[in-house]
Write the structure tokens for this entry.
Amino acid sequence: MKPAKSAGIIIIGDEILTGKVQDTNTFFLAKELWSRGISVRSASVIPDITEVIAREVKDFSERFDFVFTSGGIGPTHDDITIEAISRAFGVRTVISDILKSSMERRHNHLTPAQLKMAEVPEGAELIDDNGLTFPLIKFRNIYIFPGIPELLRRKFLAIGDRFNGPRIFLSKVYFNESESVLAPSLDKIVALKNGVKIGSYPVIDNSEYTVMVTFESVDSTALDATVQLLLAKVPGDKVVRVVGPE
Amino acid sequence: MKPAKSAGIIIIGDEILTGKVQDTNTFFLAKELWSRGISVRSASVIPDITEVIAREVKDFSERFDFVFTSGGIGPTHDDITIEAISRAFGVRTVISDILKSSMERRHNHLTPAQLKMAEVPEGAELIDDNGLTFPLIKFRNIYIFPGIPELLRRKFLAIGDRFNGPRIFLSKVYFNESESVLAPSLDKIVALKNGVKIGSYPVIDNSEYTVMVTFESVDSTALDATVQLLLAKVPGDKVVRVVGPE
């Protein structure tokens, strides 16, 4: 089976690092990418500092198949993502005629701040999927998204089909048993190395269950067999619920 | 004025990168640290892979005054944070007698999985603040937290006083005006370089305002003066609300 393509997410914004705003873009992108068979390997929140953005973008671009950035592409002084990406790859920042026209359709006379929103790293591609008022900027393997969650969602969903890979199936088993009691059984199953990825997530203050165990695989038959293996090792009255494969 | 101490946050967990769970620990820690005058410079979500955790922890430990990790300290196969930190610094993983006694008070006979939860990197310090059922593990400048949000919160709040620095004041001004129209006025104020940090955050689909501008400084007088400077540049009917300093 072909290995999944990899991705990294970079959230650019002081507002997240100072706790003024809760980031929801990582959750949205991670979920959407995972459901399309893309493996997100790292997600990073970094401040509005050109050198820091440039270094992170370069590093992620080399390490992962796809990079998704969020934030820093508006008209104000702290919107420096485009400049940082240009600097990271040693290209100029230029005005895109397409973006400029798109801005001009909305404003009679462009101010310097508005013109700034038409800037791209030289060599960037514009993805103009139907329904988008403003095309998405792509440079090399980097997809440059706005930080506003609603805009990021719309833009991602408009181009989501580009990322469809082999589907990953997920099953979840909820237990009413201490994680340390389940651990030896889980260890035995993990030791099989049968291509099914297993995660164990305890919760507290939940009246329904104490541990959720997740099973993931591109092979739904192997997935089902592995779930059954674990269920056979745990007394039935400790099993709250089995969900999936989905 | 003394510069703020710096911090980095490392969220360890495949469940975040696959979008199964929305991370809330970064938001909580960022907010708490910022309110104590600590500047969070980077927050990173990484998978349950020993080498990846070891590299990130080492890097963050060298770059920042404090490092906070979340996740990977339970009894199961995917709980490898302690082992990764030991490896990062070339020390052994050892059983802590204090943690072992703490476990033994809760269980009659410790299984290997339970004993695993008493492991620490050799040389670790245990912080046993009143009210905690299980002490917090600290190694060098790294504070090792559980990933379960409710536990992380309790443990952080129990030791929060350790991080109190100079207070940072925050004011927010909400505008009903396009960000690109506000941008030139903001740029002029940013150019003053008067120690007040300014952020501009547009929203969409909000009936009350279109842009929130934030002002931050350890000097509340400079902060107030800067807010007034911006207000003088914008027509009064475009200002929705001024909040702070708080």
